[in-house]
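Project standup — Tuesday

K.O.: blocked on the structure for the chain from last sprint. Re-posting the sequence here as requested.
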Amino acid sequence: MAVSLVVGVDGSEASLEAVDWAADAAVRHGVPLHLLHATAGEPEASDVIGAASERAGARAPTVGLSSEVLHEDAASALVDRGRDAFALVLGARGLGDLADMLLGAVSLAVAARADCPVVVVRGTAEHRNGRFGNIVVGVEEGEGSGTALQFAFREAHVRSCRLTAVHAWNPSSRALTPRPGRSWYALEAHRRPPSQVLDDALRGLAERYRDARPSSTVIEGPARRALLDAAAEADLLVVGARRRHGHPGLQLGLINHALLHHAPCPVAVVPQT
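H.V.: unblocked you, prediction finished:
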């Protein structure tokens, strides 16, 4: 039985945009689509899930479609369903979020706790609907980006689009002492040039996905700014997230938080495996 692409719905416009994105992704990847509405028990729950199901069915009539309503905490329900999911897809903001919040609390909580890739659908229609034909993936030194790169290459393959791998480095960080989990790369860039980091990371996957048309970009400066700039002309921004040592969930870090709050396009957070 194929694993499903799970999308969280709450009746907000952002969640319906997530349904659209997920329906298109389910078609591309040939996987079923499962709609989940978690609620404390409002009487409109059947209307919410019904409207989302109708929208998904109209957009992707050939995709296997299922749905459910759970009377429990939304973040916990989504994380639980995500344990066996192809990916979780969420809107950037929900009905219960304050007007001035850049990212909904549920979306952020799920991105930090899920075991599978989480896609937060944000940005304008041109970014959500694949106008640019380009996927951007952030690459760090070491093995931390391996799973994110696999996700990005596969996505570029099914979309038949370009893939841009971005590696940012800051020479001023050479003076810093590495912390646990922090790469020595910034301190030893003279031994391993930034371009070599990208070449090593892309080599095997580029041979496997020959039609993905990967290109690489090395940027001197903060990773947050480099990725946000690159995402300005992207249909999807893919980043990795490390597991927390001794604690459940993911170590999103300041960069991933900034991207989830400010990226101009959908963002996929992919747990490192």
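K.O.: great, moving the ticket to review. The chain has two domains: 5-121, 127-271. The domain at 127-271 is CATH 3.40.50.620 (Rossmann fold).
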